[in-house]
Design a protein that fits this description.
Helices cover about 30% and strands about 25% of the residues. The protein is α+β, with helices and mostly antiparallel strands. The protein folds into two domains: about 80 residues; about 270 residues, no CATH class.
C-alpha cells in the first residue's frame, strides 16, 4: 500500500513537472512571437517613415481619384503637404520647334547607335505600319508602340461624346484602328466616371468638337503636317496655327529634346501611365505602362517614363491620362493589363489615339477587329 502511494506521488510529480515544462515551452514560444511582432511593428514604423516610402505612398495616393484618403491614414496633413511640395515637375515652357521634326525615311538601317534604335527600326516581318515592343523593367511592365508614319495617327472620339464614353478597343473597331491608346481625361467623380464628359478641349479633323472646364490648359496633338504639338494656346488659335487633332492633358515631359525638371518623383507618384511622343524623324511612340498590380507591375513615376522615352529617341513627349484609364487595344481587343476594368475590355474613356493604315502599307496579320 505504501509503495503504491509512493508511486502515485512520483507519478503526480512527473505530471506536474511535465505540465510546468509545457507551460514554460508555450510561454517561451509566446515570448518569441511577441518579440518578433515587436520587431515587425518597429520595422514597419521605421519603414513608413523613410523618405522613399513616404514619397511613394503619398504621391501615389494623391494622384489617384479614389484613394487619396490613403495618404492621411498614415500621415498628417502637414506631412502630406510637405511631401507634395518637394515632389513636382517644372515643365519646359519653350515653344515646340516643329521645324526640327523632319518626317522622312524611317526604313531599316545598316548601322545603329544603340540596341534600342535597332529594336525600334527593325520591323516585325511584313509589318511596315507599327511595331509593339514589350517592356519589362524591375518595377513595371508595359508596351511601346512604334508608328513609322505619323500620317497613320489620328484621334477617335465616342459616338455619343458628352453623353457616354467608349473603350479604346471599341473606338478602334469603329474607326479602323489597328492599335489604340487612351488620350485625355474626363470627369471621374470618386473614380467611377464613364468617360462621358471630357475635361478641357478636343480638336478633331481641324474642328473644335468639345470644350469643358477642368482641363490642364495644354493642348496635345498633331498638326496638319503630322507633327506632335504641345501648346497652351486656346483651341481656336491652335486650329488657326495648324492643329488638326488634339486633347487637353499633360504635363509636357520632353520639349525640343529638353526634359522637364523633375523634383523627387515629380509628384505624380508611381502608377500606370500613358504617354505620346515623337522622334525627330517623325516616328510616333505610344507608351503604356501597367501598374497597381502587386507581384506583376507596380507602375512608373515620371523619372522612369522620361528615361524610357529617351532610350528610344523621343524629341517631344507629353503625359496623357493614366491610372485605371491606361489602356491599349490591338486588333480591336484589349491588349494590356489595366489596373481596373480589364474584365470589361478596359474602362470607357473620352477619346483615343489610334493607328490606321491610310496608305495600305504592308501590314501582315494587322486587323482593326471590325
Amino acid at each position: 500500500m505504501k509503495k503504491k502511494k509512493e508511486k502515485e506521488v512520483v507519478d503526480s510529480e512527473k505530471v506536474e513537472k511535465k505540465k510546468k515544462f509545457h507551460f514554460r515551452r508555450r510561454l517561451h514560444k509566446l515570448s518569441i512571437a511577441i518579440i518578433l511582432l515587436d520587431i515587425f511593428v518597429i520595422s514597419v514604423l521605421v519603414y513608413i517613415n523613410t523618405n522613399s516610402f513616404k514619397t511613394f505612398w503619398i504621391t501615389s495616393a494623391m494622384t489617384s481619384m479614389r484613394h487619396q484618403y490613403w495618404a492621411y491614414t498614415l500621415y498628417t496633413e502637414e506631412t502630406v503637404n510637405k511631401v507634395l511640395s518637394e515632389n513636382y515637375i517644372e515643365q519646359n515652357t519653350d515653344e515646340v520647334n516643329l521645324d526640327a521634326v523632319v518626317i522622312g525615311d524611317t526604313s531599316e538601317k545598316s548601322h545603329y547607335t544603340s540596341k534600342y534604335e535597332e529594336e525600334l527600326y527593325t520591323r516585325d516581318q511584313g509589318n511596315d505600319v507599327y511595331k509593339i515592343i514589350r517592356l519589362e523593367e524591375r518595377k513595371f511592365k508595359g508596351y511601346l508602340t512604334v508608328i513609322y508614319d505619323p500620317k497613320d495617327v489620328t484621334l477617335a472620339v465616342p459616338e455619343k461624346l458628352g453623353r457616354a464614353g467608349e473603350s479604346v478597343a471599341t473606338m478602334c473597331k469603329k474607326n479602323g484602328g489597328l492599335v489604340g491608346i487612351n488620350g485625355g481625361g474626363f470627369e471621374d467623380l470618386d473614380g467611377w466616371g464613364n468617360g462621358s464628359v471630357p475635361y478641357g478641349s478636343i480638336i478633331k479633323d481641324g474642328e473644335l468638337v468639345w470644350t469643358h472646364p477642368g482641363g490642364s490648359g495644354m493642348l496635345i496633338g498633331f498638326t496638319k503636317d503630322h507633327k506632335l504639338q504641345m501648346t497652351p494656346e486656346d483651341p481656336n488659335t491652335a486650329i488657326a496655327n495648324g492643329m488638326m487633332n488634339a486633347v487637353e492633358f499633360g504635363p509636357n515631359l520632353i520639349v525640343n529634346g529638353k526634359v522637364a525638371k523633375i523634383h523627387g518623383d515629380g509628384g505624380w507618384g508611381t502608377a500606370p501611365r500613358t504617354v505620346i511622343a515623337q522622334r525627330r524623324d517623325g516616328i510616333v511612340l505610344f507608351l503604356v505602362i501597367e501598374g497597381r498590380i502587386p507581384g506583376y507591375s507596380i507602375g512608373a513615376d515620371m523619372n522612369d517614363v522620361i528615361e524610357m522615352l529617351l532610350r528610344y529617341g523621343a524629341y517631344n513627349a507629353a503625359n496623357l491620362d493614366g491610372g485605371a484609364s491606361s489602356t491599349m487595344a490591338v486588333g480591336g481587343k484589349l491588349f494590356n493589363r489595366p489596373s481596373a476594368g480589364g474584365e470589361y475590355g478596359g474602362r470607357t474613356v473620352s477619346n483615343a489615339w489610334i493607328v490606321t493604315n491610310k496608305n495600305n502599307k504592308p501590314c501582315a496579320n494587322c486587323s482593326s477587329g471590325k
